[in-house]
Design a protein that fits this description.
heterodimer; A: 54 residues; mainly alpha; 2 helices; B: mainly alpha; MetI-like fold; 2 strands
């Protein structure tokens, strides 16, 4: 970054770069989230009353 | 000593032959299989295999059926994915080369390798729960109140294949663009600023011509992969949403080996023609010799 670059624009570009990386990772992260919730950490929530699953 | 001179001359002679190893390797593992593909494609089909002969039935089967339409439409949709990859990925490469300090550039590029830490099959398969009817995208959009009904066109259609291709191949355009931008020194941006060229003019008239060989190489890489990888349309595609790789795979499943070979031969010819045109237009040898 040089002295003439708009700092806000520079941050926005970084945000875009990280967003693209996160988007590329998102399917795998989502599958991990599903697996943890069905058989792992969030499992208890599935059987809590009022969620329609008994 | 006579012995040492003898051994040194042997080493010299052997070291001369070492340069032929890549040629031999390419002949045995690249040229020969490609030639065999052409040869097998004109063989005659038998019940479970094929026998030597000359028959153009496989090509007739390809050109006078829905396969040709599918092949052409897959190329059309692939071109769209390449364009999307370029639009989304190339600005990142420009940003990396221009605004990120040189010591950090390669580390930032490494971020895009993170996605490759997971196998391609799993990555593509993981798109199903994201894109399907009750998937992440549809539920999020519904929860936000943007849509009433789930969008079903996101998967098992050409759109699904395009999304899969972009998700799988976007990092490649970043890598290729990053290498291509080596041909655009940082001072060129300053010169453009000094001369009052706007961002569009700078991109179209300066960056694009200088980085063209690298960009073309990246786009061709995506195109070649997108045309050949049967996995993407197999998992994300549906009726009509196939590519050449899947057409060949389906022909093998139907035990029509000459047809599979013919599809491969047509695919290779298309890609070689593409490479030849690209080479004539951009001189691909420039990729290896960036200007300084």
């Amino acid at each position: 970054m040089d002295d003439y670059t708009n700092p806000l624009l520079h941050k926005l570009k970084w945000a875009y770069l990280l967003l693209v990386v996160l988007t590329l990772m998102s399917p795998v992260l989502y599958v991990m989230y599903i697996s943890f919730n069905l058989n792992g950490f969030g499992r208890m929530n599935m059987y809590s009353p009022g969620n329609g699953m008994g | 000593m006579p012995g040492s001179s003898k051994s040194s001359s042997l080493t010299t002679r052997l070291s001369g032959w070492v340069f032929y190893i890549p040629i031999v390797f390419m002949c045995v593992f690249f040229a020969l299989p490609m030639a065999l593909t052409l040869v097998f494609s004109v063989f005659e089909r038998t019940m479970f295999w094929m026998e030597p002969g000359f028959s153009l039935l496989a090509y007739e089967n390809f050109f006078f059926s829905a396969r040709l339409n599918n092949f052409l439409s897959s190329m059309y949709y692939l071109a769209i994915s390449v364009a999307i990859c370029f639009v989304l990925g190339f600005p990142i490469a420009v940003f990396l080369r221009r605004s990120v300090p040189q010591v950090a550039q390669h580390r930032v590029v490494l971020l895009f390798i993170l996605a490759f830490m997971v196998s391609e099959t799993i990555r593509v398969f993981a798109l199903r729960p994201v894109l399907q009817r009750n998937g992440l995208v549809n539920t999020t959009l519904q929860n936000l109140g943007l849509i009433d009904e789930p969008i079903t066109a996101l998967i098992y259609t050409h759109t699904g294949v395009i999304i899969g291709e972009v998700m799988s191949f976007l990092p490649f355009i970043v890598f290729a663009g990053f290498l291509a931008m080596e041909a655009v020194p940082k001072y060129i941006f300053e010169v453009c600023d000094d001369l009052g060229a706007g961002p569009v003019r700078r991109f179209v008239d300066v960056i694009l011509p200088l980085a063209a060989p690298g960009i073309f190489a990246g786009c061709t890489f995506i195109f070649v992969n997108g045309l050949g990888v049967a996995l993407l349309p197999n998992i994300l595609g549906g009726a009509g949403a196939v590519n050449a790789g899947l057409i060949a795979t389906q022909a093998i499943a139907a035990l029509d080996f000459p047809l599979a070979m013919a599809v491969s031969a047509i695919m290779m010819t298309t890609l070689m023609a593409l490479l030849y045109i690209g080479h004539r237009l951009f001189d691909l040898t420039k990729i290896l010799s960036p200007i300084n």
